[in-house]
Amino acid sequence: MGKTRLEAFSDGVIAIIITIMVLELKVPHGEDARVLLPMIPIFLGYIFSFIMVGIYWNNHHHLFHMVQRINGSVLWANLHLLFWLSLIPVTTGWMQESHFSPLSVALYGVVLLMAGIAWPIMMHILIKIHGYESPLAIAMGKDRKGKLSVTLYAAAIPLAFVSRWIAIGLYIAVAVIWFIPDQRVEKSLPQD
């Protein structure tokens, strides 16, 4: 089974996710800088969520450059990942509207955690198809970054009720870890 339709579909869904997030940004009414102040938390939430979705898109793109074939299990695993990513605009919007209430920050973390769990599920299925000695399996290695990410998300969820800023700090830490494309994959990609 070819992978092009899966890549095109995933790109389309991610583009829609970003479009939904940008549509939440409203045009300020007024002419001076004071009208921008209430938009600061909304814009910060947008920036962070845009980066998170962008990280998944970037890594998805790199991952599927290493993939030669897929099957039905990969399609379902990819849909599982896209489902959780599609909830980012809703949870981002709630955080913005509630001024980053502890519950909204925790729920945002649940969505990030579930996307963080969906990613290695998809990778495991792809490695199973390509073999445990494949360049894909070798590039993924022990996936320390993925395991650390899931651990930080899981820790951040209950911490959101102690300090929402600590939880948000942990979400930002994960983004920083993943901001640069995974070098394991970069090194394994064919050079053009």
From TrEMBL:
Coiled-coil ranges (or none): none
Reactions catalysed according to its record: K(+)(in) = K(+)(out)
Membrane topology: Multi-pass membrane protein
Subcellular location, principal: membrane
Regions that span the bilayer: 12-29, 35-58, 70-94, 106-129, 150-180
GO (cellular component) term, any one: membrane
Domain of life: Bacteria
Keyword rRNA processing listed: no
Compartment(s) where it occurs, according to its Swiss-Prot or TrEMBL record: Membrane
UniProt keyword Nucleotide-binding, yes or no: no
Keywords assigned: Ion channel, Ion transport, Membrane, Potassium, Potassium channel, Potassium transport, Transmembrane, Transmembrane helix, Transport
Gene Ontology MF annotations: potassium channel activity; proton channel activity
InterPro entries: TMEM175-like (IPR010617)
Family label: Belongs to the TMEM175 family.
Name assigned to this protein: DUF1211 domain-containing protein
Species the sequence originates in: Iodobacter fluviatilis
Lineage: Bacteria, Pseudomonadati, Pseudomonadota, Betaproteobacteria, Neisseriales
